[in-house]
Write a structure and sequence with these properties.
This protein is an alpha/beta fold. It has a domain of about 140 residues: 3-Layer(aba) Sandwich (Peroxisomal Thiolase, Chain A, domain 1), CATH 3.40.47.10. Helix content is about 35%, strand content about 20%. It is built from 13 helices and 11 strands. Strand 10 and strand 11 form a beta hairpin. The protein starts with 5 loop residues before the first strand and ends with a strand.
Length: about 400
């Protein structure tokens, strides 16, 4: 078997909530029930659980995946928790497919449930930021991305109206997404972006992702098993790659470069694509500048030309390169272990996105960003190439 012999046969998600009104176990149960209803699998057929480690609720538990099996009544032969930060959602799909290929399981539940606003239990006693950056006043991701955006501005120049265009494009998509966080489903303009308050200079409020609660999940199985179950609509992972600590052995690096330079090329090569073949792009978006840097790293444009590319390209759901058509995390809310863009890509390829449905469902490219270190770009980069069953 090979990676592309597998299939995502179902997806589910709750509405993103500013603060959940339900316990994390209840949300997880809702996702499992929805997936079983959609796919026709029995719970007894689920023999693998792969979870994202990017969770505030379970952050202090090294047994979070095992505990989840217990709470959901799952009896599995493969139990895994992926710890690559914001890469974990697509990384879970890759690991589920690898486990199926290795004969370790047949039907895997990739589960992303988190209520880190309602109930944050992550102690993180030896936290990188606590040890190495917060004592010096660099408080959290906005500060780190503030330094990153300043470095990009010094080298290439930042056009704030271009970043405003990205903010407006994603917000317009969120307005059409009934599962987006309701507090974020408010129209904005470029001027609203420019006037939004500074959080960590030059990062503005509308540059930033908002933590939220919610859950999502997918079921991954072999294409053979899908056919046996009579499932004809599914999405195939045709390429995946990740990179952690890009240029980590060098003392002085260009922080505007990321591991997506390597992971992107490898994922595209595995899929047999050229970057111009990509029909919709779903980049991880904790901050707007991250989208620009990813466009350059993947080769949509040359380094330093990201601002011009965004300015000159229609990134709306019916444009030439649909981007984060569900609103992205910035306008839908950072919930469900940062799985939003993955779920949206699968929905689009299944043709179930409603009024924001893209015209060309030939393929989709989803990315991940995980961990923020100091004096470098983000710590982990990942890319997942997907195609529908046709």
């Amino acid at each position: 078997m090979g990676f592309r012999d597998n299939a995502i046969v179902g997806y589910a998600e709750t509405k993103v909530m500013k603060k959940s009104d339900r316990d994390v176990w209840v949300l997880a149960g809702e996702i499992l029930e929805s997936l079983l209803d959609k796919t026709g699998f029995e719970k007894s057929e689920i023999d693998a659980l792969v979870m994202s480690g990017l969770t505030g609720t379970g952050g202090a538990s090294m047994f979070w995946a095992q505990s989840t099996c217990d709470m959901l009544g799952l009896d599995v032969g493969f139990c895994e928790q992926v710890h690559t930060g914001g890469c974990s959602a697509i990384g879970a799909v890759a690991r589920a497919a690898a486990a199926i290929d290795a004969g370790m399981c047949e039907v895997a539940l990739c589960l992303y449930a988190d209520t880190h606003v309602r109930e944050h239990n992550g102690r993180n006693d030896r936290n990188y930021r606590r040890d190495w950056t917060e004592p010096y006043g660099l408080l959290g991701p906005p500060g780190a991305f503030g330094l990153l955006q300043r470095a990009y501005d010094a080298k290439y120049g930042v056009d704030l109206r271009v970043l405003g265009k990205l903010a407006v494009t994603q917000r317009n998509h969120a307005l059409m997404n009934e599962n987006a966080c309701e507090e974020l489903r408010v129209p904005i303009t470029v001027d609203d972006y420019l006037k939004s308050r500074i959080i960590a200079d030059p990062i503005r409020l509308l540059d930033c992702v908002m933590l939220a609660d919610g859950a999502a999940g997918v079921i991954v199985t072999s294409r053979k098993r899908a056919r046996e179950k009579g499932i004809n609509k599914y999405v195939i992972p045709v390429g995946y790659a990740e990179r952690t600590n890009f240029l980590g052995g060098e003392n002085f690096v260009d922080v505007t470069r990321s591991g997506h330079e390597v992971a992107g090329k490898k994922a595209l090569a595995s899929a047999g694509w050229n970057i111009k073949d990509v029909r919709s792009f779903h980049p991880y978006d904790d901050f707007l500048i991250a989208i620009v840097i990813q466009l350059e790293a993947f080769g949509f444009c040359k380094p330093g030309e990201g601002m011009a590319f965004v300015r000159d390209t229609d990134l709306s759901y019916n444009g030439t390169l649909p981007l984060n058509t569900g609103g992205g995390q910035i306008s839908a809310g950072q919930a469900a272990c940062s799985s939003h863009n993955l779920i949206e890509a699968v929905r689009q390829l299944m043709g179930e996105a409603g009024e924001r449905q893209v015209k060309d469902t030939t393929n989709a490219l989803v990315t991940g960003i995980g961990w923020i270190n100091y004096g470098r770009n983000w710590g982990s980069s990942a890319a997942l190439a997907l195609v529908p069953n046709q």
